[in-house]
Amino acid sequence: MSLNTKRVAIVGAGLLLAGGAYVAGVSFGPSREGPMSFAALIVAPVAAGGNSSAASLAATKSTAEMPAPAALSAVVRVVSPEYKTRVTTLETTGKVQFNEEQLVRITAPVTGRVVEVLARPGEGAEPGRRLLVIDSSDLGAAKSDYAKAVSDAERAEHAIDLARDLFEAKALAQKEVRAAENDYRKAVAERERAASRLGTLGVAATQLKAIASHADASTLVVVRAPRSGTIVERNISPGQVVSYGQSDTPLNLFVIADLHTMWVLADLYEPDVPRVHLGQGVSVTLPCCPGDRYRGTVVNIGDAIDKDSRTLKVRAVVPNGRRTLKAEMFVRVAIETGASRVLTLPQSAVQRRDGKTFVLVETSPGQYQRRPITPGAEFDGLVEVREGVTPADRVVAAGGILLRQGGP
Description:
Layout: H1 3-17, H2 38-47, H3 54-64, H4 69-75, E1 77-79, E2 82-98, E3 103-106, E4 112-117, E5 124-125, E6 130-135, H5 137-168, H6 174-200, H7 208-212, E7 220-224, E8 229-234, E9 241-242, E10 254-257, E11 261-269, E12 281-285, E13 293-301, E14 311-319, E15 330-346, E16 351-353, E17 356-364, E18 367-372, E19 374-379, E20 382-387, E21 395-398
Antiparallel strand pairs: 1-21, 2-11, 2-15, 3-10, 4-6, 4-9, 5-8, 6-7, 8-10, 11-14, 12-13, 12-15, 13-14, 15-20, 16-17, 17-18, 19-20
Helix pairs in contact: 1-2, 1-3, 2-3, 5-6
């Protein structure tokens, strides 16, 4: 066998293995070069190579033109254009923040020295959990005030009973009885105020009896969590002195947040303000994970434009079940401003060559024609088709690389 003969056999076999046999027997529409079958793609390059034998060339051509409809259907996939709903979005940037409606900032209830800190950032907190202990003289004073108020209320009660007995015996004027009743009401009110003060300091109602009898004189105040959540901030250490009511911006000893939902504050420029409304859906993506989307809802639109950035703040509540969203993160925000029905094709069906966009349309079984189209936006693996095809057309969505089409 000569060198050229070997070349014919090797090239022909290689092209057949690469997919030529799958499209054998398929013809195409007219092109500048005229009708062409896939067998011509195999024979022409080989014939140009030099002095090949006629027997090898004929054998190669015969093998390439063998019909293989089953293999062809497995490679070339044909679909019809479909109408899909395309959501119109407004893309902008934003920042993640804690949900302020589910956030608790704990400040010092009394002035005193921190004796013990019982919680750390990252830990969960249930209602009533002990967070820290403060040694405060304010608690001692509050207990003394309550014990005195209880004693005064008891004395006033005895005084009113005596005044009523004397009045019935006509040994006391009625105004004295009324004065005794008034003193009793004042004493009861003072007792309730002192008890309420103890309640704000974390003293349980079951302890009031012992305080009234001077059996409980402890000055340790236990600060507890008022609601469930996650401790996201701690600004206190043992031995530190804390103050109550001495500043307009008191120190946050602890911050507890519910991380199941987060706020996303998006920046909206003035021309886009009319497009955004309450209740619209938002899609949030992170720069690190563009494939992960977090769905939320617009719950608030600001009332004032920032004078420096000329943007309006739009707030959305976004579920955070996996706790991926972190406070102060910068994110991409897509606000859904509307929806429309558009004709679409898979992205794999659209081909581009020499600055032209086209698809291959099946005109009849085994016959394909190149047809120019006007594409629109891409979304969810689809391409909007504005002109060029109709839902009645059958378009090649996969395997188009095997179908050579000249076209105008």
